[in-house]
Amino acid sequence: MMDPKFLFTDLAQIQAQTRRHFLGWGAGGLGAFFLNDAMRTEAQAAAVQKLNFTRDPATPLSTLPPPFRARAKRVIYLHMGGAPSQLDLFDYKPTLARFHGHDCPQSFLKGKRFAFISGIPKLLGPQFPFHQAGQSGTWISDRMPHLQGKLDEICMVKSMKTDQFNHAPAQLLVHTGDPRTGHASLGSWVTYGLGSENQNLPGFIVLVSSGGITANAGKPLWGSGFLPSVYQGVQCRSAGEPVLYLDNPKDVSRAQRREVLDAVDEINRQTHRQFGNPETVARIAQYEMAFRMQLEASDAMDIRREPAATLARYGAEPGKTSYANNCLVARRLAERGVRFIQLYHWGWDSHGTPTDEGVNVGMVNRCRETDRPTAALLSDLKARGLLEDTLVVWGGEFGRTPMWENRGGQEMAFIGRDHHPSAFTIWMAGGGVKAGLVHGQTDDMGYEIVQDPVEVRDLHATMLYLLGFDHHALNYPYQGLDQKLTGVKPARVIPQLLA
Amino acid sequence: MAPKRGDRILVWDSPTRLFHWSVVALVFVSWLSADRGYMTVHLWSGLALLSLLLFRLAWGFFGSTTARFSNFLHTPPRILNYLRGKDKLFYAGHNPAGGLMVLMLIGVLLAQAVTGLFSTDSLRFSGPLALLVSEDLSLRLTSLHGAVFNLILALVWLHVVAVGFYLLVKGDNLIRPMITGRKPASYVSEGQRLVFTHPFIALLVLAAAVTLVAGILFWGTT
Amino acid sequence: MAGRVSVLAYAGGVLLLTIGAIGAAMLLRPGFAASVRQVTGLEPVRAAAADSFYAVRVAPLFDQHCTGCHGERSAKGQLRLDSFAAAWRGGRHGDVLGADGELYRRITLPPSDIKAMPPDGKQPLSRDELTVIRLWLAGGARGDVPASAVKNAPELVLPVTFPSFDPQAVARQRARLAGDVVRLQARFPGMIAYESQASDGIEVSAILAGKRFGDAELQAFAPLASRIVRLDLSGTAITDAAPLARMTAVIRMRLADTALTGNIVPALESLPKLKVLTVTGSAIPAQALDGLRRKGVTVHGGGDGA
Predict the structure, then answer these.
(1) Rounded distance between C-alpha atoms, residue A251 and residue B156, angstroms
(2) Cis-peptide into C118, omega within 30 deg
């Protein structure tokens, strides 16, 4: 007589053979039949180490040492959404100032696609006075007086270039290495490769301060793409509960919550035994992390615990959502071993259409909102001995044109510049970058790069190098390719940026 | 025995003669077009050559007597014997040395045409089948294509020198028969029957060769 | 037949015609002429010194940007740039070197030009790379000028190579302390990690343990002291009695937000490898740290308690 339990399991297994499984095996067989050896190119002798990123499924974010010695142990990425105007902040072009108001030469317009410029726009000189500061003599405009004091800590790259001229794909390129959705973000790759030092907090935390507006590309910017979903960024709020619905509902005690979780875990484990889907294990781990976060997250993100002097230095006001608050939270998270902290601040898209987005109004406000906290963050990290192993990156998704934007061919009432993928400026600090350096140069009009162009994937390769990785070796097999953050085009680590 | 008309008898059929001179012209066209960079002309010239060579290979089995391989391909000892001047026979078609020349020329030209199909300049132009093989193999075949050209030059030089030798030293004009098709009657031995396949068959064989080449291209490029 | 010529006369005629043809080819194709000259020994095969500007600065550029199509694998336009002699031999149309030669002209064309080198959207040479080649050509494209003798050459930037390691050698290095590492990792989960997969250096961070970690707990790490390169005890309950002097291999140490005072400083000063120290938020006065600063240690904090 057959054991009914055995029969039941069998039935379950039979039911588990979905059409998908059948097609999966079938396709493998048919595909192999049609494989034509003549079509295959010779395999490249890839001397890439095969790294092992497997961990105990119960602790998917446990730390793994990097392949070689890292200079940076964590990353704080400050993304200025909308693309800050480098010509009014960092890239000083006196020649452009002389040609202010002149018609733009044809050579700048021929064959180019613009987001909004049409016809013949006028050239727009820098809108604010520039001067040199710091021992490095780096040029900076007067819009960032606090950052000016930190120029000797900063490694500025004026020759960044991208091939995307619209926000969403450009942001995706900067944060996931590809202009289309579906790819894993920087933070996901880093937590996948290194894990996180604090198992009670997410390894990848995202803080947004843009009055409710998320970045154009939305949550895929910190999504895990094809990597296991446990590595996705967790968007936390810096006012109120760090994560909505993290706390237990009224009248549910922590012990009761534990019981519920135990029951859910057991069901998930059974499902995992049957189907073997790694996402099930990820789900278990995430419930457990949420449980641990209940204790630790509120504490980590509570800036009321900071002394008043610190709050003043950042310009932080507890209870509000602001970039200043987020910077302070970022420092606290860095101290607590969070691996990747990403801040988004929107509103730099200085087209000059609404006032709030003009170079002379909106951008000024953005600078006021971000200058002091950013400088305070750098000072604070340095004072606490964290800057040398925290890689701080500040930048947008592309640059802005030397031309005065003329939407629809009309001259604008407010001052603005259009999107400019050919050249933009970012800066980095800490984490093994060469402080006080300015890398790369654009031409006299600030239009094209003339020296040391840096592609976005080169920046990624450099960041991964500082974290202790060969960017080829940090890969994940998906869709028949060992996917990498740096993509399939050749990317190189920029030696001049390394300390 | 057929009555002999005047002094000269038809030995070379028109398909063979047309083949010979077409190849001469196409080799020059291929050379010049490659040198000057007219690669489309070079491609078509090469494909035409390939078709003609395939035709000639088939014609070597189905063509007229003098065109058949069995008629002019001889054993190495016999070729050596001929080269030493020990052979006193008259040949209606190719003599043994000439037969060897034909074999070598068809061989290198075929090699050139085939390597050309897979060649590439890594930039703007590649042969129609270049994508079927790995880039490395394609580049190696391209080098071969370049090297075999030198071999063709050398063999053509040898061929012209040899024909010139026959003409100027031995007094034996081989060029005129390849145009008119006729050699003096003395070249045809008693009892030798020269069978001529109808030119229409040649046309059919050529059409088949062209179809084959077109088919290979179609298969390779889709 | 008419026109009988003797064998000798014919051979002579052929020889003359052939030499004439080669001569004509040499005139029409200077590259071929150079090859013939070198094959017949009329021209020596050129070579460059190993420390010459060509070998140190120019050849790597050629290898990186050019030899894919102008090298052993394929020689487009009959030009090879994978050796000094080959560069001098030139291509199908002859010499390519020279301050305004074909090579320099082509690599300075705008990328949109069909004749630009490298072609077809490949990365054009950077300004510095063009300067290097220009300097070499202006100096006569020589192979005997030492790299150091060329003034105004842009700085040589070596590409970054990724360090490789032998996992077995690393395992052997770690073997001695491996048992202690495992034991302590079990006792203090999440606190101990190797510096990297290529190293046997150990990093210890007790920041998440907070006040539950004190002198006694630190004492437990004594067996690993010789290999602990990074130590972070910020926010813990260690005191001036903590056995920090044992940490002889420590390079970076963080002791922020601890109750340490100036009494711990002699122990810190005794650490031979210490390079960076953070004592922000501790009770160590600024003056006490002057000794360390004089030794060249970077010290964060001290005195201000910020």
Answers:
(1) 101
(2) yes
- Number of domains chain B contains: 1
Between CA A361 and CA A377 the distance in angstroms is 25
Q: What distance in Å separates the CA atoms of residue A263 and residue A265, rounded to the nearest whole number?
A: 5
pLDDT per residue of chain C (306 residues) written in tens, 0 to 9:
456 788 899 999 999 999 999 999 888 877 778 778 877 887 777 888 888 999 999 999 999 889 888 988 788 888 899 999 889 888 877 788 988 889 999 999 887 788 889 887 677 888 888 999 999 999 888 888 888 888 888 888 888 888 888 889 999 999 999 999 999 999 998 899 999 999 999 999 999 898 999 999 999 999 999 999 999 999 999 999 999 999 999 999 999 999 999 999 999 999 999 999 999 999 999 899 999 999 999 999 875 443
Identify the domain boundary among C100, C118, C149. C149
Looking at the fold, whether C99 and C124 belong to one and the same domain comes out as yes
Contact flag B172-C1 (C-beta cutoff 8 Å) = yes
Give the CATH number of domain A74-497; options: 3.20.20, 3.40.720, 2.30.29, 1.10.1740. 3.40.720
B198 occurs within a structural domain: yes
| Inside any domain, residue C238 | yes
- Structural domain including B129 reads 8-221
Q: How many residue pairs from chains A and B have C-beta atoms closer than 8 A?
A: 10
Given a contact cutoff of 8 angstroms between Cβ atoms, the answer to whether C115 and C96 are in contact is no
3-state secondary structure A191-229: HHHHCCCCCCCCCEEEEECCCCCCCCCCHHHHCCCCCCH
Is the complex ipTM higher than 0.85? Answer: no
Q: Is the same domain home to C180 and C292?
A: yes
Instruction: Collect all residues of chain B within an 8 Å Cβ-Cβ radius of residue C4.
Output: 168-169, 171
- Nearest by CB: A38 against B133, B135, B136: B133
B neighbour chains, 3+ CB pairs within 8 Å:
A, C
Residue C114 in contact with partner chain A when CB distance is under 8 A: no
pTM: 0.75
Give the integer Cα–Cα distance in Å for A144 and A367.
Answer: 6
Enclosing domain of residue C295: 167-300
- Residue B3 is assigned to a structural domain of this protein: no
Are both C24 and C109 inside the same structural domain? no
Q: To probe the interface with A, which of B120, B133, B141, B222 has the most A CB atoms within 10 Å?
A: B133
Q: Is residue C63 domain-resident?
A: yes
Q: Where exactly are the structural domains of chain A?
A: 74-497
In a domain, C156, yes or no: no
A141's enclosing H/E stretch is strand A138-141
Instruction: Decide the pairing of beta strands A441-442 and A449-451.
Output: antiparallel
